[in-house]
Amino acid sequence: MNILMIGDVVGSGGCQFLRSRLPSFKRLKGIDLVICNGENSADGNGITPVSAEYLFDSGVDVITTGNHAFRRREVYELFESEPFLLRPANFPADAPGKGFCIVDKGRVQICVANIMGTVYLESLACPFETADLILKNTPEARISIFDIHAEATGEKRALGFYLDGRASVVAGTHTHVQTADCCLLPGGTGYISDLGMTGPVESVLGVKPEIAIRKMKGKLPVRFENAQGDQMLNCALFSVDDKTGRTLQAERFDIR
Length: 256
Description:
The chain is an alpha/beta fold and 256 residues long. It has 6 helices and 13 strands. It is globular, with a radius of gyration of 17 Å. The model has no long low-confidence stretch (mean pLDDT 97).
């Protein structure tokens, strides 16, 4: 089972670039399942019904999110009605939507879960305990995939080792910078600290550099605007054994 995980998609430019590159890459690599983080897919950040449907129509099977999941109120209803649009599972239970889903591939069922870190982010339920609950409640899933949307690399790596041998893949999102530690952990879990970003190359996490500099230097509020120009698609491909749920190979890609 070849599972592709795509880093945070930024704005309409990132969405359009994904649509232009994903179909051919899926054919080239024989990809069975595509998961991408879409919490910044709407221009100005957040996710909307329009940007979510665009990603689904472009070949994405499951969309994960993070701290910007609920930035746009118009998407709340879609979180409730669309089982493959996820919000972090450790949000309070009365938040719209669900934090995990089951993808039925016939020969195997796959749990895709979305969890948010708590270091430097919202004070949500413990991500470690949330992961335990998801695994306990999805015994039918031989393969389990976790998007850990977190700020701190240490927290992501700790969760990776915590789930090693119990989860098939643990992949980090949120920082928009692809890390060089794509690997197999000792227990057979595929891991990367951050998948990176799908969006403008010449940018600060997708934002025009001059605006990011003005914000950091001047400390005053600014209106963020997505950068334009050449785009990139950061992702990682995990080949998972259908019978054992262990990852056999993990490789990261930077598609231009």
